[in-house]
Give the backbone structure.
Amino acid sequence: MTANLLVDYLMHDAVYRRLRESGASGWGRDEEVRFLFDQVLPLLPPLPPVASLLELGCGAGNLSLMLAARGYNVTGVDIAPTAIQWAIERAQSARVAATFTAGDVVTLGQFADSAFDAVVDGHCLHCVIGTDRAQCLRAVHRVLRPDGTFVVATMCGEVVDDRLRKLFDPQSSTVMIEGRPTRHIGKADDVVAEVAIAGFDIVSVNVVARRDPTEQDDLFILARRPSRGAWDH
């Protein structure tokens, strides 16, 4: 991967401000969130007992609140303060218990080691660029308890949309807009390898084909942090 890409993750906050002002319900359409939920839920540890769960890049809390309503003890983290405030207000309005906090998914610095039974990437990992990806995966490994579950939901596959292809740099597998990287779109096997290299056991891999030529394939990975391993302290 290219190490020196100039990434501005806080640009997402401006997008969330525009979305909120436009009356949108969040980053994605409601049907997209429902699709993610239907794919992710069967991969999570069963309840009871109530499992502690962290969602990376929770945005306005759409997926987090659906998981919390099913009984998970959910914490959502996102770098965009606007998204976090939006998620808090949505949780209060829906009377669903969930915790939302602003933070960097690359380091997850505010969370203790082995703090969660499960971590869900609900379309966040493809927003993490370059060498930050390995650091993020190591952070996920750290905050998961041994035998904890990691669910990855990320875009992957060949870029076929004409508009997107003009912005895509195949060398770094990155979508570039005005010289800035915004999305990582890798081959499914390469993303699975990233997760494995970070110290996870891969349990299952599923690629769901794009439903529209303007979209990407969706990759769903079920992984676990081993009870013992090279990364454990």
